[in-house]
Specification:
By secondary structure, this protein is an alpha+beta fold. It is built from 6 helices and 8 strands. The longest helix has 14 residues.
Amino acid sequence: MSQNIEIEFKNLLTETEFTLLKEFLNIDESMFVKQDNHYFDTPQFLLKERGCALRIRAKNGKYEFTLKEPHSEGLLETNQILTAPEAKEILENLHIKDGPVKERLVSLHIPLEQLTLFGTLTTERAEKVFEDGLIVLDYSTYLNQYDYELEYEVHDYQLGKERFERLLKQLDIPQRPTDNKIRRFYQAKFKD
């Protein structure tokens, strides 16, 4: 089973801050890669209630099925590589393929027959190694909305937090409370 602990820090950005970070990190347009995140839950939001997220990510013709669960130092990710036909079967017929993601869903008592595809968020993403971590710049579009985001993925929570905060301060970017992409997607989809 492919599992890992994801420790990352996030900050929403303005378009100006996004451009500033691209320049500061020497990231040009050719470094951005498109990915589609297809999000699932039950109509009762049983995954969301547990702080979990379920998605298929399509990127460069490859597909990865991921369940994210809360963990003391970030998120526990269970990942499963899918073939294009397997991804299509899940996306079109909601038939969940046997494997580690299905096993975790069953262990969480998620009724598989109730899973629903809620929609897709498309991201243009650039990644760059930065101070023993990975800087990620994202431009995401979903439900007639868009946003800019900085992520910093690290192995050490405390050291990563210090480096992330120092980078923001150095570039005079305010720290903003930042929900993850699936929460922003749901907020847009279900706003009254």
